[in-house]
């Protein structure tokens, strides 16, 4: 009898997992492998021919492609760095302020800051394009109002500023997510711990640095990895504001737009799905390496506190 | 009782629908990037065709211009594209024909209404097959605010010197921004800048064909000078033109804030509607008075048949109609600025469109240099021209460096240039 129960329990697991496994396999795993496969082929006189790693060799070795690839990767990295040094500290700061017991209208602030994250990239991009427009935008007028008109620049049109501007727009849009996650982590810290800290004379800022921050480090780790994956997959914002040529002079070109331009083609340039798939595979590898470093190098070392 | 009534109703509906479906024996869908033209197709062109061919129903289903090629290619590969496909000129369409997505239309009766030059944009290199019916070309030049010119007492410039004198005068006066052009949407700088004024320097077809033959290089003087000219435009553009997009330029001009708009004739319809001042146009200025002038008269749009369509006969009927004199006059007058490529004389009513087309009499026509053959490889010469022209306009790259980048890119894959 006992054996039968055990068996049927295992059988149940399979049945309940099956739908998810099947759907996930069909729409995630199989396409992933067919992308890998597509990257190994090349179009020779209108028929697909297996060429092994030649597309990757072109991508990393042929200056025509590798210049664009490294440029995109460099821009992508900068995009990520801006998020890490701006979005996450601001997210933590906002969460710390929100969790302060003396703050009024807390839910209003929380909602107001979170709302942009539910906007579409296209809307956010378009709105900011209008705000920053040197011709019709409110930014020049507002700066003029406080006497700082001379600081105004056509930010989206200058190579030196365009990428940082876009990264900051993205930060504005998504700062609500780290804020919410860290806010939740802060709320889950038991009061006894904080009271104990107070008994030891640790209050205010030092309480935050010495007690709260170590406790929310795992949450910050999760947020960093989510930011990493999101940034290296980014595409929409750049495409919506700068187009597929990611101007000015490719200064805002990231892996996503580079892949789109190569895969689907742009204007007179014809699409090359094989090389596009090679870029997609490279993106996948970069993200995989990043996530692995995090999982094995950082997360295992993060101390978890059991309450 | 109820049940049988319901059944009878159901049967009647089903029979009814099959009945109508039988009467409508063919439905055609047109793929296009001209989403601006949706109403014209729906209100003028399609009704005119359907009135003559009651058995065929046509739907115009455009997508966004910059996404068109990507969308069309994926749809054709997946077998879900419409029956009729509007064709970009030269290589983009040629590759579709070579992949077997488009059908040879050489035997279409009304194909004889077009000259070889008109058909060249949609024929194989050896001319053995023509796979799209030519629809229209667009001419480049400058559109200006005639009221503003009158107010300031200036006339449309003919030479380069006069051109800058005019710009300087408008700038001094300060009421208007001399010229509406931005560098953000890079194609604006290349299309309405470089290939607009360029033909006067590289002598139109002569330079273009020499480039294809490998006899001239993009670093030669006649190809660098127009870039240098664009760089000289910067002081006459609006504040923050680096981030000014193409629609911004259009608005600046139609709102009467800028006096001159480097244009393509496709602007005519929109400007007529939006601007409440008098419009004028002048061709790209020449270096010395009396010099031979060249205009960019670019074969821009054609229409072909999806090889996998189920309605071959209906599609051919439609395409034949597109080749007719009736369509030519209907199209040219519904869309002033899109000039018919047909050999039939088309009477145009719009004065601005007439002005543009009149340049054909005195100036030599040419097409944009990057379109035929030179954009087959990677990097794509036309996309590079977008980037370089915008860089030069922004002052981020010197004309010489820009030209060198274009030449190096082209020589990277194009044998005659190596």
From TrEMBL, chain A:
Domain spans labelled ABC transmembrane type-1: 73-296
Q: Which Pfam families match?
A: BPD_transp_1
**Transport keyword on record:** yes
Mostly located where?
Answer: membrane
Q: Where are the transmembrane segments?
A: 12-33, 78-99, 111-131, 160-186, 215-235, 275-297
**Membrane topology of this protein:** Multi-pass membrane protein
Keywords, in A-Z order: Cell membrane, Membrane, Transmembrane, Transmembrane helix, Transport
Superkingdom of the source species: Bacteria
**What CDD domains does the record tag this protein with?**
TM_PBP2 (cd06261)
Query: This chain belongs to which protein, by name?
Result: Carbohydrate ABC transporter permease
Name the source organism.
Nitratireductor kimnyeongensis
UniProtKB/TrEMBL annotation, chain B:
Family named by the database record: Belongs to the bacterial solute-binding protein 1 family.
What PROSITE patterns does the record point to? SBP_BACTERIAL_1 (PS01037)
Q: Where are the transmembrane segments?
A: none
Q: What is this protein's name?
A: Probable sugar-binding periplasmic protein
Under the heading SUPFAM superfamilies, the entry gives:
Periplasmic binding protein-like II (SSF53850)
Q: What does this protein do?
A: Part of a binding-protein-dependent transport system for a sugar.
Just give the chief location class.
Answer: periplasm
Report the leader peptide range: 1-23
Which compartments does it reside in? Periplasm
InterPro entries, alphabetized:
Bact_solute-bd_prot1, SBP, SBP_1_CS
- What species is given as this protein's source? Nitratireductor kimnyeongensis
At the highest ranks, the source species' classification is: Bacteria, Pseudomonadati, Pseudomonadota, Alphaproteobacteria, Hyphomicrobiales
Pfam (any one): SBP_bac_1
Keyword Ribonucleoprotein among UniProt keywords: no
Enumerate the UniProt keywords alphabetically. Answer: Periplasm, Signal, Sugar transport, Transport
